[in-house]
Amino acid sequence: MFRFQYTIFILAAVFAKSVAFTLPPSASGSRSTTHLNFFGGALKKAFESDDKLGKQQNAGLTNGPNENDNVTLNGKKIKAVVGQKVSVVAAQNRVKITYSCKKGDCGTCEIMMNGRMTKACQASIPQGKCDMRTL
Ligand code: FES
């Protein structure tokens, strides 16, 4: 037991010595920094920026989302993005669709989309007019 407590004490002392937190910027204009110097700077290197990767790229959709303004669900106009899954759009708009296989095999999730029976688990929002009705 003593050995364990001693080890904890040593680790706490090393940790306290290697971690430095600076308070938020004050009126004097000092910069807020956090030093991650535990274990010989191993964490500091883990969070460092890799300059070899070049300029940061947009992680989202290029040219923004392609929104479709002509989407209705049970007669109500809703927001949707072209290519978005119908099951996701229905859930976002709190329209309950019953699913079973979610693979397109059973037909439990069928809805009417632009006058045609469509499996909601497989369908996505098309370009242009999209009128969806649950059964
Ligand atoms: S849940 Fe079975 S076809 Fe959609």
Layout: helices, strands, pairs:
Blueprint lengths: L1 H17 E3 L12 E3 L5 H5 L20 E7 L2 E6 L4 H7 L17 E4 L2 E4 L10 E5 L1
Parallel strand pairs: 3-7
Antiparallel strand pairs: 1-2, 3-4, 5-6, 5-7
Bound molecules: FE2/S2 (inorganic) cluster.
InterPro entries: 2Fe-2S_ferredoxin-like_sf, 2Fe-2S_ferredoxin-type, 2Fe2S_fd_BS, Beta-grasp_dom_sf
Protein name: 2Fe-2S ferredoxin-type domain-containing protein
GO molecular function, one term: 2 iron, 2 sulfur cluster binding
Structure, described:
The protein has 3 helices and 7 strands, in the order H-E-E-H-E-E-H-E-E-E. The chain has 135 residues and is an alpha+beta fold. It folds into 2 domains: 48 residues, no CATH class; 68 residues, Ubiquitin-like (UB roll) (Roll). A 5-stranded mixed β-sheet has the order 4-3-7-5-6, with no helix packed on it. A hairpin with a 2-residue loop joins strand 5 and strand 6. The longest helix is centred in the first third of the chain and has 17 residues. It is elongated, with a radius of gyration of 28 Å. The structure holds FE2/S2 (inorganic) cluster. FE2/S2 (inorganic) cluster binds next to loops.
Condensed summary:
The chain is an alpha+beta fold and 135 residues long.
Notable features of this structure?
135 residues; 5-stranded mixed sheet; 3 helices; two-stranded antiparallel ribbon; Ubiquitin-like (UB roll); alpha+beta; binds FE2/S2 (inorganic) cluster
